[in-house]
Amino acid sequence: KNFISILSNRCYCYDHYKQLIPYMDAWSRQKSLVRMRHDLVGRDEDHSDMLIILQHPPVYTLGTGSLEKYLHFNIQDAPYEIYRTERGGEVTYHGPGQLVMYPIVNLRYHKMDLHWYLRSLEEVIIRVLSSTFAIKASRIKGLTGVWVGNKKVAAIGIRVSRWITYHGLAVNVTTDLSPFQRIVPCGLQDREINLLISLFLMID
Question: What does the alpha-carbon distance between residue 199 and residue 147 come to, in Å, rounded to a whole number?
């Protein structure tokens, strides 16, 4: 296991970005880390945030209030594994070529404000795309995620338990987009999904 300690920023990074980690394994790991952080907070020993970076085999996930009407298939006969989770947001797809990041962050260290946290995750993606790829990404008022024009390149869905975050964000890099055609991603009927690699190749 590649385990990187970044003590100066009070963050441990579990870097598995080249690996396909089954969704259930990553989900269980997140919940285990959150429980551990709760115990550490109780002993006043919680001093470091965490970040898990990975890819998943093909899987559909639904948020706690997701509507099955956004699935274009019978949930009993799904084309891939499907999980209903405790995160916010509607149905989405994860698969190879998509970079998934799960921050396990104690917002007591930062700002105890969920709106601020969501906008901060968006801002990180926007700045990375600008500085690394010269891609001009932005927000769309009233929607969560990161967009290039009218196309979504990054989705965000979080859960916060006693001010400790889990679940997180997914950026489509070289993902096969065809599984998105079997759902209404994030419940948005009139928006498209795009790949970072496509945007990068369009840059002159």
Answer: 11
